[in-house]
């Protein structure tokens, strides 16, 4: 995880080079950009940042100080604070990619399930 500025690009490049040297048989690291789009701050575009590191970006999290500040102050997760906010979906995507697991699938309900539930209740 890095912010899209020159200092973070340098640090990421050094870290990735060291990881490739120490673990040549492992998969490439995954890149997440944080605090993208801070006003009046010079930043490197996500595409240029990823190209310089020769990595794909799995998520770029926008700068949302109110959302993250409120969640931190309340001791809540972002998705608990605002379940429909796009940042929550980005965090879910990151966790799924890092753990190698897919999303949680809700069981499909058939049109007959209310009737079957009533029949089961009469036993």
What does this structure look like?
The protein has about 120 residues and is mainly alpha-helical. Helix content is about 50%, strand content about 10%. It contains 6 helices and 2 strands. A two-stranded parallel sheet has the order 1-2. The mean pLDDT is about 90.
Topology:
Elements: H1 6-22, E1 31-36, H2 46-53, E2 57-62, H3 65-74, H4 78-81, H5 86-99, H6 113-121
Parallel strand pairs: 1-2
Please give the count of helices.
Answer: 6
Helices and strands, in order, run as HEHEHHHH
What's the helical proportion of residues? 40-55%
Mean pLDDT: 88
For the sheet with most strands, the description reads:
2 strands, parallel
State the low-pLDDT regions, or none. Answer: none
The strand count comes to 2
Indicate the overall shape: elongated
The radius of gyration is 21 Å
Strands ordered across the widest β-sheet: 1-2
* Percent of sequence in beta strands: 5-15%
Structural class: mainly alpha
First-to-last CA distance: 55 Å
